[in-house]
Each structure stands twice: as structure tokens, then as C-alpha cells.
Amino acid sequence: MVVNARALLTDALTSSGLLDGYDWSLEVRPRRRSVGVTVEPGGRVVIAVPPTARAEHASRLIEIVASNAQWLSTHVAKSCASVPTPPEVSLNDGDGFSLLGNSHSLRLVDAGSVSTERRPCYTSWYLNVPRRKVAAHGARPIIEWYMTEGTRWVEAQAPRWLPRLDLTGDKTPELRVVDLGKRRWGVYRPNHHRVELHWTLFQLPPDLVEHVLVHELVHATRPGGSAHGPEWRKRMTAFMPRWQHLRKELDDRGRSVWTGAVQQRQG
Ligand SMILES: [Zn+2]
């Protein structure tokens, strides 16, 4: 490959705007025979080209990247979201926390309050937490952040569902994000007409969280029969046809969420 072909092809791709917002690079791969568009863990995009690539291949390269645009956006989102959250955290800089599928890297700060700040990977953020709060309360400020953000999400999403489920007016259930312990993602409490969602749930992608919200809201419509009997299933399928698929994914991915445990810090 001519030395500056890489730079020229990189410029051409940059000008095309197709990769705006991505953390990406164009790499020459000696064994490649064709262009490859790949996503690395964490969401970094690599456009791999063969050593025979030349500057005059720019328009063909742009075509290839354009034809992969949809695939790319889906896979970068997934890959950013799948940065593994360890079951235990140490409360040190760099600990990973996922919120609704977006990864956040803990950054202890000397002043201010708990806040988030965008990082270069476009679905990735810093989670700024004051050092003194961690020293005094351990993981509590982070759990409270999940509860606050979870409540915000529920308040934004519930209005789309309540009218469809005929849960408006005095039929509207109370909605809360709480700690439900180890075994449940959500619960409907008929005596209080209240739906409660577990804060740990909000580490998962929005479609999985929404599935739990709808599951509990369908309980709140008080279908006849047993809790997950034919009437409940019929309503669940009517409102969310993919619910069984989503439940399976929840079972799979839900196993690796952080439940608030903190490793003993060294020293
Ligand atoms: Zn249920």
C-alpha cells in the first residue's frame, strides 16, 4: 500500500460523515483481500483494508461503509453496552457501570455531585462521583443514581403504555424503583395498586427493562385467573408479542448485573 493511501482513505471517510460520532480508524491488514468493517469490544470501529488499497478506491470504500451503516450502528450500540459489568466493584476509577445499556466508567471527583459526562465512544459516559461520598457511604450514591435514573426512565416511558393498557385516571398504578432483593426484577402489589421495579434492572438495555415494566403493568390490569395464567399471557402477548423472547434474554443477561456488592479495598 502506498504510504499515504491510508491517510487519504481516512480523510475520504472522514469527509463522508458516515463515521461521525464513532471512535474509529482505518487499518491496513496484510492478509486481507477485501474491505472489512468490524466493531471491537467497547464499540471501537475498525475499517480494515487490504494492502492493495489505493487512494482511488475511496469512493468504493465509502460505498461499502455506507452499505454497512445500519449494521454498524446496531453493533456499536450492542458492543458499547456489552462492556461487562463485574459482579463486584472496587469503587475505584474505571469501574464499569451500565445504565440502560450505556456504559459508564466511574471517575472519583473532588467536588460537585453525582453526574454523568459523555466520553468519546458515543454510548459511553463517565460517572462522576464525589470521593467523599464514596468514603462515607460506599456504593450507596451509585445505587441511588440508578434509582433516580430508573425513576426518570419509568416516568418517561409509562405514559406510552398506560393508555394502551387502560390504566389511566383512577386506574393508574403507582410506579416505584426500589430494592427488591435477589430474586425479582419487578412486582405488582395489588393491595397498594403499585408496580415496583428493582434498581439493578436499569443496568440492562431499555427493551429488557420495558418488558419488565409491561409485565407488571399487565398484572395491574388484573386479568382473571392465576398470576401468569392464560388470561395474563393473552394480554401480555397482545401488548408485547416478543415477550417470551425478551424474558429469555433477561434470564441470560440478568445473571451478570451488579447487585451492589463491593470488594474490600486494598490497603
Ligand atoms: Zn409476574
Feature tags:
alpha/beta; about 270 residues; 3-stranded mixed beta sheet; 4-stranded mixed beta sheet; binds zinc ion; about 40% helix; globular; Zincin-like; about 20% strand; 10 strands
TL;DR?
With 267 residues, the protein is α/β, with parallel strands linked by helices. It has 8 helices and 10 strands.
Q: Kindly report the spatial arrangement of strands forming the biggest sheet.
A: 4-5-7-6
Compute the number of strand runs: 10
* Rounded Rg: 23 Å
Write the CATH homologous superfamily of the largest domain.
Answer: Metalloproteases ("zincins"), catalytic domain
Q: Can you tell me the number of structural domains?
A: 2
CATH topology of the largest domain: Zincin-like
**Alpha-carbon distance between the two ends:** 52 Å
Named at the architecture level, the CATH assignment of the largest domain is 2-Layer Sandwich
Element order: H for helix, E for strand: HEEEHHEEEEHHEEEHHH
Helix content percent band:
25-40%
Task: Report the total helices.
Answer: 8
Binned strand content: 15-25%
Regions with little confidence, pLDDT below 50 for 5+ residues: none
CATH hierarchy, class of the largest domain: Alpha Beta
The largest sheet, given as strand count, sense and whether it forms a barrel, is: 4 strands, mixed
Mean pLDDT: 90
Oligomeric description of these chains: single chain
Helix/strand structural class: alpha/beta
Bound molecules: zinc ion
The geometry reads as: globular
